Amino acid sequence: xxxxxxxxxxxxxxxxxxxxxxxxxxxxxxxxxxxxxxxxxxxxxxxxxxxxxxxxxxxxxxxxxxxxxxxxxxxxxxxxxxxxxxxxxxxxxxxxxxxxxxxxxxxxxxxxxxxxxxxxxxxxxxxxxxxxxxxxxxxxxxxxxxxxxxxxxxxxxxxxxxxxxxxxxxxxxxxxxxxxxxxxxxxxxxxxxxxxxxxxxxxxxxxxxxxxxxxxxxxxxxxxxxxxxxxxxxxxxxxxxxxxxxxxxxxxxxxxxxxxxxxxxxxxxxxxxxxxxxxxxxxxxxxxxxxxxxx
Length: 295
Prior knowledge:
Layout: H1 21-27, H2 34-51, H3 53-73, E1 78-80, E2 83-84, H4 85-115, H5 118-123, H6 129-159, H7 167-194, H8 201-215, H9 227-233, H10 237-249, H11 265-286
Antiparallel strand pairs: 1-2
Helix pairs in contact: 2-6, 3-4, 3-6, 4-6, 4-7, 4-8, 4-10, 7-10, 7-11, 10-11
């Protein structure tokens, strides 16, 4: 889970990636390639992230605070034989952290950047538009990696989370995290094009993200939720991300306590892959470089 300060107004720096077309034409030099421009755009994203210190701290601290609060309040409460609540919760929070860094963050930040005219200015430069998305993707990957490491570390040190000792579960961790983050990143970009503006984005996105966390097995044991709630949660990727993370960090014996009586790795991959395609379709159809008022 993550959050973006509503008062934050990250301002892109088009000059960091803009290519002066006229100068290149006169000198005969080739404009910089996509990799170089994407690297420059990634640097801009990192600088913007670091300069907004309150948002940066909140991004990493808020999920850890939730973990400590819920883990302490329900400490030692058994979920199944050999599994206590805080171990279950850590696995869910790792998935929620990936969801927040990708979907929630992008769906809020991109409309803000569009409101202040950053996207409009970038669209008017010779910068390949794909470089903008490359910068966002690298930033998402970085924050997701750091946040996952912090949550896993807290879980191991304070809540008895057991790390896998074989390669198989770690491979599961990486493909679930990878597919889930890609799907949520694309959906975040897509939703950013749907919300009206940067002022309304937090009011739309944050409650939606919170509801999905409650019905996807992050805060409560998924199998104990009402059937209708399980059915709704199972439509969205977060439920399958939490289930995948439980298969990595909880004992194999816990699989029988899942709704289907197993980890369902094949179905997890299928659903997350499908959401990648849905997210790509929505992002392509809805993304806007200008506000609607600009035409």
